[in-house]
Amino acid sequence: MKTLYLDCGMGAAGDMLTAALLELLPNREAFLTELNSLGFPGVTVSGEVSSKCGIQGTCITVKVNGKEESEQMYSHSHEQEHGHSHGHPHEHSHTHEHSRGGEYIHHHSSMHEIVHIMEGLPISEKVKADILAVYSLLAEAESHAHGVPVTQIHFHEVGTMDAVADVTAACMLMDRLAPQQVVVSPVHVGSGHVKCAHGILPVPAPATAYILRDVPIYGGGIKSELCTPTGAALLKHFATKFGDMTVMRISAIGYGMGKKDFTAANCVRALLGDTEEEGDTIVELCCNLDDMTAEAIAFAEEQFFAAGALDVYTVSAQMKKSRPGVLLSVMCREEDKETMVGLIFKHTTTLGVRQNISRRYTLSRTIETIATDFGEVRKKVSVGYGVARAKYEYEDITRIAREQEMSLADVTAHIKKQEK
Fold first, then answer.
1. Dihedral, CA atoms, 403, 404, 410, 412, nearest 10 degrees?
2. 8 A C-beta contact, residue 217 and residue 11
3. pLDDT in tens, 386-405
């Protein structure tokens, strides 16, 4: 299985992830030429060789109208104090235009403006959907942090043209590399405080912390913001799972460098290679039931799923004394076994539970979000063992069918047509 592993031991930012992924391509200059031809107003993206702690990698620089935003555009109005310099100063989110006097006029960017920019880009629908999904994560995080609806969000950290270019580049590179799974290390977020448009905030910044819910993160002795909201959103969107690097045969390695220097190499490391499909061990707990109603069994099944069961099913069985009954099977992880046994005794009438240890082989599953005329639709993509298949989320399809008074087949066909 083609696997991408991202080592975020020094956090992550949009430009650093872009640089690391860029190094995995055989023809980097051709990609940068393509990126610069997309039509971002006044934007140019370049990659330069950079060295951190003796490690050579690539540093991405984004310039708008010939100037690097982090160094010129904000110097007149923003005081910077950031752990990384990311080609833009941790993605301060104003778009900029030249006034006649040579100053910059600041415009906040809304989600509507981001969508408008994406609609005009000559990129695939899949890449557009990825970009908008990343910005949706950012908008949700900003909405939560500031207590306002998503529709009223005006990005203060991630709306500049250089930030949009970073997100676009990263999504294009992920599409170009097409890994079947993306494994991300626990994310080092840094510590201390960071200055931004809203004032001085704790690290990780509120938006970053919200995006990284349920993700393994840690701080440390480095008093800087190591993971930006954009970096967090890109990781959250593309990661298949977070954890240690799996056993893999590496074919390419990329180093994406930040602008600042620390005692540790300030970089994101990307490793591309192949992993062997391997099964996992699960526990199957079984019991025979001949004195429970269908309603009681259905209620019990709900409790098992709520507690983390991987699957629950029944099979009709002929019991002793010729009684009709069912064989109840509950599949769970080893660490959930004791909990599940207790629930089986609590919610069924059985006097005994049998245990079987099984080896399970599964396809790697991810969720993609597709932008359609009817709103966002989730698509479950499963790959592995030389097989690839996809299926739209049933709840999303049925919602659209009800709202539009269409059949499920017509909704599915319409979405497939839009994806092409």
1. -40
2. no
3. 888 999 999 999 999 999 99
Name the β-bridge partners of 377.
Answer: 370
Task: Tell me if 70 sits within 8 A of 89, measured CB to CB.
Answer: yes
Beta carbons of 348 and 370 less than 8 angstroms apart: no
Calpha distance 326→330 (Å, rounded): 13
Partners of residue 255 on adjacent β-strands:
269
pLDDT of residue 186: 96
Strand order in the sheet with 375-384: 364-372, 375-384, 387-392
Q: How many CB atoms lie within 10 A of CB 209?
A: 21
Q: Which residues contact 342 (CB under 8 A, 6 or more apart)?
A: none
Residue 334 CA, chain-centre distance (Å), reads 27
Relative to beta strand 43-52, strand 55-64 is antiparallel
Cα three-residue angle 83-85-91, rounded to 5 degrees: 100
Identify the sign of the CA torsion 332, 336, 337, 343.
Answer: negative
Alpha helices (H) along 205-253: 206-211, 229-238
- Per-residue pLDDT reduced to its tens digit, 235-294: 999 999 999 998 899 999 999 999 889 999 999 999 999 987 667 789 999 999 999 999
H or E element in which residue 30 lies: helix 28-36
- Encoding tokens for residue 143? 């909405």
> How far is the C-alpha of 205 from the C-alpha of 225, rounded, in Å?
8
CB 52 within 8 A of CB 208: no
**What amino acid occupies position 197?**
A
Phi, psi of 121 (to 5 degrees): -90, 140
Q: In degrees rounded to 5, what are phi and psi of residue 95?
A: -85, 155
164 phi/psi in degrees, rounded to 5: -60, -40
pTM, two decimals, is 0.63
Nearest to 370 by CA among 113, 120, 136: 136
